[in-house]
Amino acid sequence: MKQLTRARITAVDAYDVRFPTSRRLDGSDAMHPDPDYSAAYVTIRTDAPDGLEGHGFCFTIGRGNEVAVAAIDALRPHLTGAELDGTLTGLADHYRALTGDSQLRWLGPDKGVTHMAIGAVLNALWDLHAKRAGKPLWKLLADLTPEELVALTDFRYLADALTPDEALLILRRAEPGKAEREARLRAEGYPAYAASPGWLGYSDAHLASAARRAVADGFTQIKLKVGADLEDDIRRCRIAREAVGPDIRIALDANQRWELGEAVEWTRALAGFDPYWIEEPTSPDEILGLAAIRRAVAPVKVAAGEHTANRVVFKQLLQAQALDILQLDACRVAGIPEHLAILLLAAQFGVPVCPHAGGVGLCELVRHLAMFDYVAVSGTLEDRTVEYVDHLHEHFTDPAVIARGRYTAPSVPGFSSTLRPASLHAYSYPNGAVWLAERAQGVA
């Protein structure tokens, strides 16, 4: 791998960035009826002569974003003045330092706002590393050897499910055909599904037209939010099925709304519309409950993971056979070392990864993880798809691009996590131009 020159971190800045998506009910669901998609956004600068910056963020939905910013601020002493030696070992050292702070760790451990803040900072460090290497992140990771990937992975507390030797076997099995898969990825893209038609606050007419448009755009799966009212869900599922026809997959997402028995009864009531999966039917921490729901609602699949706190909980979900679909989130866990562990766990258990996206910047980030998984870990696209919503991409310098229902492979160096300066200033909360205008109109 290209040896990068040493640099020293000179500044770590955190910003509270919010978009007023609740005004149009974009992102609305049964548990979150009025989200304002937001990012606790990090910029890392160094004294390197190339002038490159690292950018990262964790995703929130409005109130509380300032708490995530404060958590990032609490990590600054670990970073300011620290050396970036341009090696994978150096990145691994930063991971261990941030996750190992004995006092901050108490606030989790390995979960919650502090863990998400660590993920934002580590995503920024990896963005900077990929920029300095001149590669998009998915390609940078795919070019690493199995031994390098294993050395980066956090295997703590996983020995009963995945050992470094077992991870090496998984990665070595994927090595044949890597070049062919990369070429296919560049030529054809990565499968996506459309979540935009199904926000719970949208009208029936909007649902029908958006569902038809998704099919016309090449998507072979859409997703509907459910869980607030059964009769409404039955009506909306009927509208969606009539709009897309019998051959398009329809996934359902309850966003943790139901008790266990209610989840089974409600899913069975919607089974006549041939749902492909039911997502987050109950609490994301209800491991045994998710396993029971999965057994009860088959052949409808159970999908979860966007709110799963860390690799250890993913391990237990897989051990309990609680998931048919693992929904990795790019901003929930502590960066690349933990993402690697989760992808390898999924491969070990033979469970497909269909990452969560949607919220501001998640589509931009998670495509890198899915593409790396395809090229270097799972080696397959069978039953794989990544969520896509058509909101807020214009605010990023390397926005997600969809062609014929598939994500195109990023070619710009980095993690695609850099906000446009104009967007950063306009949507900074509470004094960005957009929020000042909202208050002037008596809205915010």
From TrEMBL:
InterPro entries documented for this protein: Enolase-like_C_sf, Enolase-like_N, Enolase_C-like, L-fuconate_dehydratase, Mandel_Rmase/mucon_lact_enz_CS, Mandelate_racemase_C, Mandelate_racemase_N_dom, RHMD-like
Single GO term (MF): L-fuconate dehydratase activity
Cofactor: Mg(2+)
EC number per UniProt: 4.2.1.68
Domain Mandelate racemase/muconate lactonizing enzyme C-terminal: from-to ranges: 204-300
Keywords, sorted A to Z: Lyase, Magnesium, Metal-binding
Alphabetical GO biological process terms: amino acid catabolic process; carbohydrate catabolic process
Pfam families: MR_MLE_C, MR_MLE_N
Substrates-to-products reaction catalysed: L-fuconate = 2-dehydro-3-deoxy-L-fuconate + H2O
Enzyme class at the top of the EC tree: lyase
Name the UniProt record assigns to this protein: L-fuconate dehydratase
Source organism of the structure: Streptomyces bingchenggensis (strain BCW-1)
